[in-house]
Amino acid sequence: MSAIVPIFTAVSLVAYFSYKNTQQVIDKLADQLMSEVDNRVHQYLETYLATPHRLNLSNANAVALGQLNLLELKEVERFLYWQSLNYPYLPDIMFANERGDFRIADYIKGKRSIWAADYPNIDKINQYAIDSTGQRIHWQQTLPMPDGDIRKRPWYQLAKRTQAARWSTIFTLGDDTDLTINASLPIYEPKTKRLRGVFGVHIYLSRINQFLQQIQVAQSGVVFIIEPNGLLVASSTKELPYLKTNHNTFKRLSAIDSKYPTIQVASRSIISTFKSFSQINRHEHLKFTQSGKQYFLHISPFKDQYGLNWLVVTVIPESDFSEQAYKIYTRHIIILSGIVLLGAIGLATVTARASTRSLLRLNTLIKNLAKNNFELVKTISNITEVKELTESFNQMAQQLQQSYETMRSLNQELADKEAYVTNLLEMLPIGVALHDQNGTVTYLNQVAKQLLKIESIPLATREELSNVYNVYQVGTNELYPPENIPALRALEGETVLLENLEIHLPHAEIIILEVNATPVFNQQGEIISSIVAFQDITLRQQAEQLLSRYNRELEAEVQQRTLALEKEIQERQKTEAALRESETRFREAFATAAVGMAIVSLEGKFIQVNASLCEMFGYEEMALLKLSVEEVTYPEDLELDLELVRQIIIGKIAHYHLEKRYIHRNGHLIWGLLSVALIRNPDQQPLYVIAQVQNITAQKEAEAALLEANRELEHLIRIDPLTQVPNRRYFDEYFQQEWQRGIREEQPLSLILLDVDYFKRYNDYYGHPAGDRCLAAVAQAVKQSLKRPADQVARYGGEEFAVILPHTALEGGMIMAKQIQDSLQQFSLPHKRSPISNCVTVSLGISCIIPSSFMSSERLIIQADQALYQAKQQGRNRYAIY
What NCBIfam families does its record include (predicted)? Predict the structure, then answer.
């Protein structure tokens, strides 16, 4: 009986320690697996989410260095296109300015295009197909701009409000089935700090889903990411983090409402423990039970400097690790304990020592198992129960070794990830350095080595960094103080961004660096290293110095211009004083002027009139101010006056003078000499018209009388008073006029000279008064024969007359001569002293010629006179031709 108690005690201890050690191994494996998964998720998020902000910063640097002109939107458009080629997994790279202009380089579903909105049509956005160089090919469609103005979009407003690089809230883009987040960066004028615009990059969250689904989290474990409000961002399940409603709109999915039980129970457990997701600010490890099942849960915050705040949650059921191990353990312990207890009575004495040694050996191996020593147990006893226990132990060890191998595989995957990160750092276009906790440089990428002109990493303590790497304060020959070196400040917990250090290289070369140093934390929140990114900004500093010098010169020029402006203001004040004095004199002259004066609106209404104008028109001042210029103007003169006013308003003429008629209040007409000028404001906009009217009615009446007298005098000068036909003076003028016209038109001109036959005898017999009446009758007979307005008869002298026939050939002249004879015969003027007829007759000479500049007009007259002489020689009362 004394042996039974030790055996029973030994078996119980073996069972207890086996259970405890197995539980410790499972807990440790679960923690390691969840930590590795969490690290992989954090590394992926840091890499994937850093790209949009690096791209925005690169674009901002291109603007600062003058490589990109934001005023040239075509240039911006093509720049964004080339950027999109380098980042094919970014769907939209964009820029919007304060005027509302907007450009997007778009890459969705394998197709590239450009979206553009231009002021003033900023409420619409146009899509264009593009070629391989980013040039527009043709228009595709026009859509309404969301919110009616790109400047009202949340990502633009956020960048403008915070004046810094920021993440937007998560949103859906149009009807695309994906969640999107935008990285934005505002751009400011260096001197005025005026906002020029905002760069933005859209990034899809579905790629995070795809990454999480590739992670093997035990057999049924789940990784998911949520916001502090509990809404899902991504998960390793096939479940989408949003719901699509019947109205074709999107609704974000809460983790508590997930259809996956693991996500749902984990979320409820977190709420139960912490009351709210937003209360979690550090890494947390939980173990909870739901529906009889135990779960391991790991929570870690993911935050960045741009305002992102997510929680990464890893959940693994304990059964994934321990189910089989516990089954084997329980079965074998029960069997072993039963056998030991039943056989203890008979075999206690024989087997006590052997069993004790075997169990102690087995206990030692179990403890080694907790130290990851998976040595299998060989046969350590011939006792059947001990053999069974040994086999159970070996089965459990094999399963734990398999779990350990899984963990080692994860470690290898982590190493591969580290290699990937190293390659990524090598691909960066900026220098990157890593410092350990002691400040020693442990890594430099190739760009860093090229900038520093070194091939390997020199050894240097914290105090030796400035001296070994030739780090100096900008513009001095003083080494950079070790305590201010960015990497060492980052090891103290600071995030450092500065531009005040330079590197002195061989051959007297100096480069100025922009340095960004950030601390690196482990899972416990402890600083384990620092990472430093730096780039050569020598050219940018030189550009800024040039800009600063230009600004100083500009300030001097502005100051000089200000002094000149002050002088100009003083002169303008003097001018204004003189103008006021001139205006006073004008008002006095306006009121007392002897001529009528008025100020008239552009619509023709009287604004101000003087006493002389009122007296001229017969109106009281108030009565005249109620009228318009049109109402006092004679209708026939109105159209010309209005046209001249229109020309003066549009600037075609500066002023005009016009004689026009006005209607007096009593109804009679008044003639006025109108002088008009236009008054403009300082911006050269028309204000009103100033008019001066001089009463010239008496003058116009005198002119009319004089004109009538002149007409009478002209008549007396040109018309023969006896015969009432044109005289010799008019004949000479008209003949020369038609001669010149004949030259121009190359048309014939005929001339008839006619003489009253035996007129002296007529005078002697009938007397001179009768002779005068005879000549008048002959003139009328000739005049009645002429049918065309251009044909003209004139008294050539004494009893001789001349007939001018333009555009008439010789035959026409002969016909006209016959008609004159017939017309005179109808008058039947008696002539008792004529030897050839009882009535008055005439002899006619006809000549015709086509005028030429090479001959004299006298030739035609001489020829007609010779023909007249022939007619007289041939017996009179006839015509002859030359």
Answer: GGDEF, sensory_box
Give the other-Cβ count within 10 Å of 425's Cβ: 21
Angle at the Cα of 210 (from 208 to 211), degrees rounded to 5? 65
Closest CA to 369 of 361, 379, 358, 381: 361
Q: How far apart are CA 93 and CA 284, in angstroms?
A: 37
Does the active-site annotation cover 464?
A: no
Same domain, 414 and 448: no
Within a domain: 103: yes
Q: What is the DSSP letter of 254?
A: B
Which residue, among 116, 145, 146, 147, has the nearest Cα to 129 in the 3D structure?
A: 116
Helices 4-64 and 206-214 meet at what angle, rounded to 10? 150
Q: What is the CATH number for 628?
A: 3.30.450.20
CB 772 within 8 A of CB 720: no
pTM over 0.70: no
Which tokens belong to 298? Answer: 């790991």
Are residues 380 and 483 located together in one domain of the fold? no
Q: Which among 227, 514, 799, 800 is annotated as catalytic?
A: 799
The parent domain of residue 271 ranges over 208-317
**Whole-angstrom distance, CA of residue 519 vs CA of residue 517:** 7
Residue position matching structure tokens 């410092």: 435
In DSSP terms, 151 is beta-bridged to: none
Region of 742 please: left (phi>0), alpha (psi -120 to 50) or beta.
alpha
Omega within 30 of 0 (cis) for the link into 748: no
Do you know the residue count of the chain?
A: 882
Tell me, what CATH number does 491's domain have? 3.30.450
708 occurs within a structural domain: no
Find out whether 317 and 176 touch, Cβ atoms under 8 Å: no
DSSP secondary structure string for all residues of 816-881: HHHHHHHHHHHH--B-TT-SS-SB--EEEEEEEE---TTS-THHHHHHHHHHHHHHHHTTSSSEEE
**pLDDT averaged over consecutive 10-residue blocks of the chain (882 residues)?**
53 54 67 84 90 91 88 90 85 93 88 91 92 89 91 93 92 72 93 92 89 79 91 89 72 88 87 87 84 85 92 86 54 55 54 60 62 59 62 66 69 72 79 90 90 88 89 91 91 90 89 92 86 89 81 84 83 77 74 87 92 92 92 92 91 91 93 92 89 90 81 79 92 94 94 95 93 94 93 93 96 95 93 93 96 92 95 95 93
Q: In this structure, are 614 and 693 located in the same domain?
A: yes
**How far from each other are the two terminal CA atoms of the chain, in whole angstroms?**
188
Q: What is the 3-state secondary structure (H, E, C) of 492-552?
A: CCCCEEEEEEEEEECCCEEEEEEEEEEEEECCCCCEEEEEEEEEECHHHHHHHHHHHHHHH
